Amino acid sequence: MNLKIALFAVLGVTCAVFAAQWLLLARDSARRERPTLADVGIGLLTLFGDALGIGCYATTTALYKFRGRPSDELIPGTLTVGGVAAGIPETIFFVTAITVDPKLLLAMVASATAGAWIGAGVVSRMERRSIQLFMGAALLIAAAFFVVSNLGAFPLGGIARSLTGWRFMAAVVANFVFGALGTIGIGWYAPSMVVLSLLGMNPITAFPIMMASGSILVPVAGIRFLRSGRFAWGPALGLSLGGVVGVLIAVLIVKSLPLHALRWLVAAVVTYAAAVMLRSARAVRASAGSAPRPA
Predict the structure, then answer these.
(1) What would the pLDDT profile of 133-171 be if each residue is shown by its tens digit?
(2) Residue 202 contacts by C-beta under 8 Å, 6 or more apart in sequence?
(3) Could you tell me what percent of the chain has a pLDDT over 90?
(4) Which residue in 76, 88, 112, 108 sits closest to 228, CA to CA?
(5) CA neighbor of 221 nearest in space, from 131, 292, 116
């Protein structure tokens, strides 16, 4: 069987299992929450940027933080659960349009999915302050990558579309780590592009690898968040609905934007959101320290 067809088959099955799990939980009317227009708008805007190479985790987290909804401890799960639907058209488009070694692609997808399954299990049990600290750090890392990208300091990379030997294994291990970190809001397009470039690959290969990895690992990790209940229903559904529209607009209509100026804007917004997130974590610690101890 063609390996790309196998990948799309796995994508279909994984997303179907995720959708069935979500629908099953949604039968409980007490859990259902309708998305607002703002929820849908955030999904459209951030996933539009994701399809153009801006990424969506940092921008979505920043907008959620500015809005004050959902609560900080629900953001990782909301990002994961709400990002499943948009991953389908992104993967089909980029895997079809950009050539990369199918064996490397499948190995990277498998390792990222394993990392996400482990990461989601950890994040779904983390305390609010721990999540705030990790996501604040994630936002600062994302802002740093935006700045580095605009300064042209990323490694140039090579022309390879495949890897062998230790380089193959290094890429697979790195994607495992990126998959785990993705569950706490650290987007992995920029780190993936850096690693692949250092290993001699064409930086553009990061697109199909990242999109395919995300489209499989996100529903897998999403199932763990669904079972734990650590996500916000309305914002997650709005992210799903708006995200699909945003991706389709990006890849079928717009296709390119002046990303240089946009990255500077996003870096500033994300840095401010990181400061707010870390300040919230500090406030949680202060309130915990001032709470009366039991006799």
Answers:
(1) 777 777 787 778 778 777 777 776 778 888 989 999 999
(2) 157, 158, 159, 160, 161, 196
(3) 19
(4) 76
(5) 116
